[in-house]
Fold:
Amino acid sequence: MTKAMNVTFDSNVWRPLVSPITFPNDPDACHLDVIRQAITKKIVSGFLAETVFTLEAIKKTSRKAFFGSYGAEVKSSTEVKDAGVIHTRFVIGPSQSHHANNNAYLAKHLNDALLLDFKLLRIPRIAGVVNPDLKPSHYAAESRFSAHERQERCGEISRRIEAKGCGIAHVKSIGNNHANGKPWIDGIKTAPLTEEESIIKAIAEWADGDAVSAHHAYGNDFFCTRDAAKAAGTTSVLSRPNQSWLSQDFNVVFVTPEALAKILTS
Structure:
């Protein structure tokens, strides 16, 4: 049996794909129907970046306040070894009390995706935002690369995306402008309310950058999106120029629903 095609679906595609009754007038309905049939026939395996349920799950108007008060959880332990040598161990992880959650709308679409056997792609960021509503069974258990290789691949492409001024670079830039020498995330708290709209967009761009990084880390075949970032300009990771170098340097193949449907019916 031919191995299924692994496709990562962007935020602007997956909901109408998995919940067609909710989006009866979607302009790509016919193409999404072709893709959905391919998924049910196991010709395509669907994947979502976990950022859909972490960064994007934070209500837009709450994003400045959320990150302005976000702090990693740090645990330490001390042990006395031979000859009185003291070893102190620090573990830095995501906050267990400050996290995203699925709202009813998001939970419904996630359930529809799970019925189609969608899996989530992990983003290995230290102390990243978590969502306790996500279960271990929701995540992809296997990949074309080992966990160590995925971490290396994700790190490499994430650094390139940030160096290009895309992805997380937007929100870091805003934070650094107001951090007064402290870590960038402290600057989100002190940023004036006039920056709120910029912070909302920057976190959406962060989610897009991490989604592309996760896609590459797992070695999926296609990244299906309708986002050409025309309004955001060239500093968006999904702009045409950035899609071009990501395709050339990292073999990320971007497709629209229409293009993917044509591949499946050719």
Q: What stands out?
A: The radius of gyration is 20 Å.
